Automatic annotation (TrEMBL):
Entry's localization field: Cell membrane
UniProt cross-references to PROSITE patterns, sorted A to Z: G_PROTEIN_RECEP_F1_1, G_PROTEIN_RECEP_F1_2
Keyword Transcription: no
Transmembrane spans: 25-49, 61-83, 103-120, 141-166, 186-213, 234-253, 273-292
Recorded topology in the membrane: Multi-pass membrane protein
Single Gene Ontology BP annotation: positive regulation of MAPK cascade
Pfam families per UniProt: 7tm_1
Gene Ontology cellular component annotations, sorted alphabetically: plasma membrane
Protein name: G-protein coupled receptors family 1 profile domain-containing protein
Key words, A-Z: Cell membrane, Disulfide bond, G-protein coupled receptor, Glycoprotein, Membrane, Receptor, Transducer, Transmembrane, Transmembrane helix
Ranges where the G-protein coupled receptors family 1 profile domain occurs: 41-289
InterPro entries associated with the record: GPCR_Rhodpsn (IPR000276), GPCR_Rhodpsn_7TM (IPR017452), TAAR_fam (IPR009132)
Amino acid sequence: MRAVCHIYPKNIDSCAMMRNPVFRFILYGFFFIGIICTVVGNFLVVLSISYFKQLQSPTNSFVMSLAVADCLVGLVVMPYSMIRTVEGCWFFGSLFCQLHSSLDVMLCTASIFHLSCIAFDRYYAVCNPLVYSLKMSPSRVAFLIVICWVVPILISFGPIMLGLHIAGVDILLPQEVCVFLVNRVYAVMASLIAFYLPMAIMLVAYWKIFKAARRQARQISKKHRNTMKRERKAAKTLGIIMGVFLIFWMPFFTVNIVDPFINYSTEVVIWDIFLWLGYINSSLNPFLYGFFNRSFRKAFFINVQCGNVSWIRELRTFAFM
């Protein structure tokens, strides 16, 4: 079994003895860099969209909300997962383990929900541009963003805090272990809602976008070709971001469904690898925006430059005090 087939320490003082100190230092360094990149990168996305009016669009409303979710992953989920992965046990008690698991499920689900909304937004922008402003009105965008947060909360905090996700699972875990163990029903239903159904929606949306963009490219006049080129580039960029997300999260959600049906025999190290692959996706999104989007690149540069200027001014002020 996932938790039982490993020998866990009887007290937290022995956790530090489970791995070589040098290896632990390397792991902490690697994970810490990932956390910093996640928080800083996504914070720059939020700051850029908030500050620059030219970036404030329906699509970027979803992007901004997605960046908030990814930033929270870096702030409240990844640090505790880092300690659990490196030390091999849990220091923070069973109640906080439930809270951490709930936040983990909620924020990761919120991320993919936002990405499916981005696909929905791009579908109307490319395939139905004449009704885009009507279909993606500010009120509808706000409603979809609320859905992106409310549904993940319902499928995470409710079942986990009430213990419904482990109903019927006859496995007793030590208090020093925080393993997200789920029964078959929750594993299938939560994975379908959080990943597979949104994934199907995204794949269909982007396939239709690809076909529509190719058809319109043949029919459109030279006068409007630049506009269509920008739309195709935006769709391609978001498609790459979507593809990266699926590649990094597919292993975890696949094992998440399979594991309860194979008597929880998946090794802990496999879970850690697949989970951190998903976390890394939260680190990559801001860099994908910055690499592919010229407006974001300019906004990132201005934000960083302004931050450096402010820091220099504060340093000079301090020096002359």
